[in-house]
Amino acid sequence: MGRPAAERRQDLVSLYREAQACTRCPLHLTRTQVVFGAGNADADLMFVGEAPGVNEDAQGVPFVGRAGKLLEELLVDNGLSRSDVFITNVLKSRPPGNRDPQPSEIDACRPYLGRQVALIEPRLICTLGNFATKLLSGSPRGITQVHGEPRRREIGGRSVLLYPLFHPAAALRTPKVKEQLARDFARLPALLAESAPVPVETASAAEQLGLLD
Length: 213
Ligand code: URA
Known about the structure:
Elements: H1 5-20, E1 38-39, E2 45-49, H2 54-59, H3 66-77, E3 86-89, H4 103-120, E4 124-128, H5 130-137, H6 143-146, E5 151-155, E6 158-165, H7 168-173, H8 175-185, H9 188-194, H10 200-208
Helix pairs in contact: 1-4
The structure holds uracil.
């Protein structure tokens, strides 16, 4: 497996400090603060949204507005909570007026996401909406086509199960999208279980049965 959790957590704190001082793109001129990400630094499940909005920019925490409330409800409906998962965004700084992220901003910010994945070591990453999905899938196929289709990808130097979901903000605008998001979300517990490492007991039982050399 990977490096000890305490070591990875320490490196994540260093990365957080580095991001707080980031001036790699012009968004540093207009943001109130960097929104690095929040939650369990050793999470099996990570969510990647688009970019901080006005509430996130004010509080320094991702998904604290209406979209965040829906995300939290969906987690709870499926036996999870915010403290079980790590939540972050493609961009760590708010685009003024909530405009779309620009390609140059995504390029400038993407090393942070790669390093977050490498340090947190999630088994499953849910991309929320088009920007995160296209960035992490490496494919131009949009969320309407690929939502609910898990696929294996190498991200941050690790093999991870990528699971694209509609963005909760889109779900708040369109009831049909909300229903689909809830259906896709309901597969999360099973996907998490599927992506679990093989338990040690299985190996020793097989050994005891003489199934291994
Ligand atoms: N939308 C996002 O994509 N990210 C947030 O943090 C909040 C809203």
